[in-house]
Amino acid sequence: AQKITQTQPGMFVQEKEAVTLDCTYDTSDPSYGLFWYKQPSSGEMIFLIYQGSYDQQNATEGRYSLNFQKARKSANLVISASQLGDSAMYFCAMIGDYKLSFGAGTTVTVRA
Amino acid sequence: AAGVIQSPRHLIKEKRETATLKCYPIPRHDTVYWYQQGPGQDPQFLISFYEKMQSDKGSIPDRFSAQQFSDYHSELNMSSLELGDSALYFCASSLPGTGGSSPLHFGNGTRLTVT
Question: What is the Rg, in whole angstroms, of the alpha carbon atoms belonging to chain B?
């Protein structure tokens, strides 16, 4: 069974600063994928970034980077240069056995 | 770029009624997933299909059923609706043969309200 843990229910960040969202996971599968999704108040689920369990390098997508520490089973998301439009719920998710499991989510509020 | 299309966007039903939600995956995506997200909760996996066959089943009530058709679109059928079925229902699709290496792309969801 897979388990995703996001321990930060909510965070505030100042505009233009960086913010790190924590995610730890547990799985017995040797092959898995880790994702981060953004869900604005409008409700849609937006894919941000992906990290494969065998990837040697940390994934980056524009202002998003994933700090993947396999031994610690953590996959933290770093958002650099925060913008007001980054205010949303952020979900960490893991795929295994053709099923995506989500963490509880972290609400990020960017302040001007 | 084409995205996952879900219809309807909003649906209001009364208790004990039935509802059908539709999902049109991104072209060439052959795997479809259904998720249910209650207010303030993370999405919960309901069911998935790969090449028109059910591939996995999650916390889907027996009152719900789903299928994937020859054109790869999928429908989630919900009967004997209960107040607790009020939620945002997402459909997602992914590329062929991607057990763990390709992102799921989500539709905008169908917001079901049961009164």
Answer: 13
